[in-house]
Amino acid sequence: MRGVLVDPGGDLDKLKDAVQRAGVTLEKILLTHGHADHCGQAGMLAKELGLPIEGPHEDDRFWISRLEDDGPRFQMTCEIFEPDRWLNDGDTVSFGEVTMEVLHCPGHTPGHVVFFHRPTGFAFVGDVLFQGSIGRTDFPMGNHQDLLDAITQKLWPLGDNVTFVPGHGPTSTFGQERKTNPYVSDAAMARG
């Protein structure tokens, strides 16, 4: 019953209530990337609960440094923070008895990371991949080819049976997306 919050961008009262109802003891906050809807209020929550923040990759320092300016776009108050630990490709993060691998998957943002739990085939992918779609790359410092490469070269090799939780929308599996996703399915990639 020890856990983490991944990407607590806002709705802090709802998150704290859910944690309390579940009876989970929080150990830290994990961040996939620096966009306000994923980390805008993470610093506030970390201070309130005395939790360390791990992630994202330091290439997202640009995004975290502008949280206070970006917050109003999401109708929220955001606060700039400094993570306790920037993450790199190949790092691990741990809580309770769980250890997750860190994969640096740039494209949506330059410092985006994915958290992968190999024993259960489970991943938190943030805004890299969605059921039937992929992350936007039209924001500053986004790169469409980097995103496609991250998905096909880092995520697909993990296996078709991997279940993933995206930053928005329903869960899916890598295998399902390889079959049906119009952006990164095997057929779409073959067409170029």
Descriptive notes:
The protein has 192 residues and is α/β, with parallel strands linked by helices. It is built from eight helices and eleven strands. It has a six-stranded mixed beta sheet. The protein has a three-stranded parallel beta sheet with strand order 1-2-3. A hairpin with a 2-residue loop joins strand 4 (92-95) and strand 5. The longest helix is centred in the last third of the chain and has 12 residues, at 144-155. The mean pLDDT is 97.
Distance between the termini: 45 Å
- Main sheet: strands, sense, barrel: 6 strands, mixed
Give the overall pLDDT as a whole number.
97
| Strand order across the largest sheet | 4-5-6-7-10-11
Broad shape:
globular
Number of strands: 11
Share of residues in helices: 25-40%
Number of helices: 8
SSE pattern, N- to C-terminal: EHEHHEHHEEEEEEHEEHH
Instruction: Look at the helices and sheets and give the structural class.
Output: alpha/beta
Strand percent estimate: 15-25%
The rounded Rg comes to: 16 Å
Give the low-pLDDT segments: none
Descriptive keywords:
192 residues; alpha/beta; 8 helices; 30% helix; globular; MBL fold metallo-hydrolase; hydrolase; Metallo-B-lactamas; MBL_Glyoxalase_II; zinc
Outline the fold blueprint.
Layout: E1 2-6, H1 12-22, E2 25-30, H2 36-39, H3 42-49, E3 53-54, H4 61-65, H5 67-70, E4 92-95, E5 98-104, E6 113-117, E7 122-126, E8 129-130, E9 133-134, H6 144-155, E10 163-166, E11 172-173, H7 174-180, H8 186-191
Parallel strand pairs: 1-2, 2-3, 7-10
Antiparallel strand pairs: 4-5, 5-6, 6-7, 8-9, 10-11
